[in-house]
Amino acid sequence: MASVQAQVAHIWKRLGFGPSADDVQNGVAVGPQALIADLCSRVPTTLADWNWPIWDPSQSWPEWAEYGRFQDRILEQFGRSTNPLQERISWILMGLVVISATDELHYPDFKKYTNLLKGHALGSYHQLLTQIMIGSGMQWYLNGFENEVGHANENLAREVLELFALGVTDLQSGQPNYAESDVKEIARALTGYQYNWTTGNADFNPARWDSGPKTFLGAPRGAAAISEVMQAIDEHPSYRRYLAARFYQEIVGLPPAAGVLDGLVAALGPSVDLRALVTAIAQRPEFLSDAAINARVRCPIELVAASVRALDLYALEDFNFAYSMSFLGQHLFNAPNVNGWPQGRSWLHAGQVINWSSLARELATRDSGEAGVPVAQRSSTIRQFHVDAGALSAAARAQGAQALLGLHGVSAATNGSMTSFAEGAWSFERAYALVLLGMNSPEFYLN
Question: Is the pTM of this model over 0.85?
Answer without folding.
Answer: yes
